[in-house]
What we know:
Elements: E1 10-14, H1 23-30, E2 34-35, E3 39-41, E4 49-56, E5 63-71, E6 74-80, H2 86-95, E7 101-107, E8 111-121, E9 124-125, E10 134-141, E11 152-154
Antiparallel strand pairs: 1-2, 1-7, 3-6, 4-5, 6-10, 7-8, 8-10, 8-11, 9-10
Amino acid sequence: MTVFTSAGTTLALTKTAPATYNKAGVEALLAAATKIGEVSDLGDIPAKAFDIVTWRNIASRGDSKAKGGYTLGTQTITVGIDPNDAGQALVDTATDDDDFYTAIISHPKLGVISGRALVMGGPRNYGDANTIATRQITLEYSIVSEDEDGLVIYTPED
Length: 158
């Protein structure tokens, strides 16, 4: 069995959309994307999750189910507040912007996950004397067109 910690994982953000929704498109953005510093928890990583559609035929009394639409999810990230971090400054700008941004999560062994998201901001927590001041950043992932969800996932071997 081979498992990995999240150590070494980075989160970057850019307003630019990839030219193509594949490894080459994301790699082209990665060099210019701004890394968000002091990330301590990435939360749930975006993935396609389908809704269940349920209906009950009154003649048979039983539930019937079908796979419905899907969501790419919501990601809530925790960062230690750093007023001098360019990535956190970009988050502040993106929070006040109605446009989508590209989020790029890079793990040294598991690869890259990228998607287009609205940056929704989130609460700050200053805690107590023995706590690092943190903030939550919420990303709402969205499809990019009728035939493309915009989620790009690749491993170092790809």
